[in-house]
Amino acid sequence: MDYKKGQLIYILIAFIFFGCSNDNEVDNSQPAISITNFVASYNQVKIDWTLQRPEGIIIDNLTISRIEKNGESDLYQEKLIANLPSNETSFIDTDVPYKDEVSYSVRIMYRDERVTPVTYDNEIKSEPKKFIRDIVKFDRVPFQVQKDPTQPNIFHILNKERTGSLVKYNAVKNSIEHKRTFENGFFLNNKFHIVNNNEIYLANTQGKIYKINLNSYEILDSYLATVADNLNSFSVSGNRIYYQDDEDWCIYDTSTRISIKTGYLSNSDYSEYMGNDKTFFLYCQNEQYGSMGFASYTAENCPGFMDCSPVTYYYTPWALKPNSIDANIFSWNADRSKCISSINGAVFNTNTLKPEIRLNDITGKHYFQFAFDANNNIYATVQGEKKIHKFDSQYKLVEVIDTKLYPLFPLLTTDGLKVIGSYKPVSYWSFGYGYNFDFNIKSAVETF
Fold it and tell me: How far is CA 159 from the centre of its chain?
């Protein structure tokens, strides 16, 4: 009986001893973060996570970090974008950068009070989660963007960096379909012309003119016009290429491959053949003055050397406000009954060439480029701001569209608005500062 009592007492003491030891045993497990949900879109990224926090672990800091980059060569830094309460388990980023790759991580700084002395500034970071975009990028801001005359989602883009290139962009596929490079981008004109809806004519200042198939970008022919100074403004009518050489208005005949001076003096900064023997001319001169007009050059009234008497139609009135006309900022509406020019958004009725309004007088803003839609709404990219202004056909500001890049060239497609924008602000004042419409700033097509 005594033996049994002793055995029971021994078991009871052992149970109490070991039971107490288990209750007081320290949990040595480490905290852990696991991202459980990651949803990304154009406007925002939503992150959810769980945090395993053993007793004795005190969270001092919970943060969200973001890394953004465009390609492997892009310099990048990790950026702290949020500092949250320690019990938070979700975060929404509403300012997602427009880069190829954006990565997010959740990080905690904690102290461990389970040990003596207490350890501080311990760190744990979750595995990064990536948001990847398919972005069409350019090393510099393009010089000209022109919508294809028959394919509403195709845009032809002129770049002058390095060798210079002409790029065919498909807005539906968001991809470059063709690219044609040239000998030296520095000498290329700022403007090309689409002729007969199936050819592109692109010239350089030294007199070389390329005839390019609109669809395949194959070079069909090239011509060498005689220039004493620089070939700047030019237009194409049949087998004649009219061009500006200093103050001489000249003709290059593509059938005979001969250049001749007309004897007619001109200082046009942009010209474009409108059909029906009618050519449009734009004269900038300086930031204070400028004009536009229509004239007719034909084989009959301008047959050759020192024998040119073009038919002159009408010009803009001379009492224009300063900075109303700029060869680098110019757009037509669909039927070419209206055009718009300059950083101030001066709209002209092309049947009279009288100014109708300046968008700057409405908003006080300066613009970079414009585009008309089929209903004569105007999309205007605001300089130095991540905004596009939409005006209706009566020039009322009806919408302000926010962008992630600094918008430059609006692209109106059957899928809606896209825009070529830059990663840094672009500042352009007027043609009066010269032909230096050249911005060494990376840009990309922003799709909404």
Answer: 13
